[in-house]
Amino acid sequence: MTDMLVPFLKMNGLGNDFVVFDARENNVTLTPEQIAVIGDRTKGIGFDQMITVEPTKSDAYAFMRIHNRDGSEVDACGNATRCIGRLLMGEAGTPSVPIQTNAGLLIAHASDTETLVSVDMGIPRLEWDQIPLAEEFADTRAIELQIGPIDAPVLHSPSVVNVGNPHAIFWVDDIEAHDLERFGPLLECHPMFPEKANISLAQIIGENEIRLKVWERGVGLTRACGTAACATGVAAARTGRTERKCTVHLPGGPLGIEWREDNDHIIMTGETAIEFEGELDLNSLTYKKTASGDAAMEPLK
After folding, report:
1. Which of 83, 225, 230, 246 is catalytic?
2. Is 0.85 topped by the overall pTM?
3. Which of 63, 108, 180, 287 could be a cystine partner for 100, CB 3.0 to 4.6 Å?
């Protein structure tokens, strides 16, 4: 293998998929343009986020850097944290592992099976300037924002929460009745959100059960978004729609969300999967698979 061939893993958490590079010994630096090429689902490997596992000087086991498909860097990704937590727990041989991110220290925990992983996503940020919003709102459970005519808005009054990145959750009777692919880009870049935002449609389908569809900033429609599920669970509890423990059903599958009463931390639990192992040619940005599925279960190194 030449220096221009870089090993990687392709993983997903409920279909929210990632390309993972281990950069702890050999630095992996890619431009936003290169990241966009690799992330393209027709010409590249294809992913929602690119993850680089890097060395850290903190007490964490490693640092996790996150880039969206468009090359932009973001602070948090819950499903990626669960996937990386699975790898690092396997490597360390421990039932939990602390992971440093730009959003702070996140702790992954082993669950009932090897593929089921929980992560402590920390405390949600609920004040308007923490999300952040362009205008001051005393109550972020429902802010003044709408799409459509004033007297008959299509979407309105979202709950807003920051779980490492900004989220706006619109409560609707039927998530399939709204074209999120049409409204998502407009709302993501709305002037209300100076750092853009992840946009979700949420529907209560039962006691402590929520259906969710997510337009992720810098990505688009996604089969699952962990931080959106966390933000929705918090918003549902704050607005009295559910208890502090609920199940969020995304197109890729369910996530268990618990907003703990003792410390306000959010615990997210769900499945992880390794799709394949491969090598990326940094010159051509082409790749080849070297192992698939459970054959790629070795630690990162």
Report:
1. 225
2. yes
3. 63
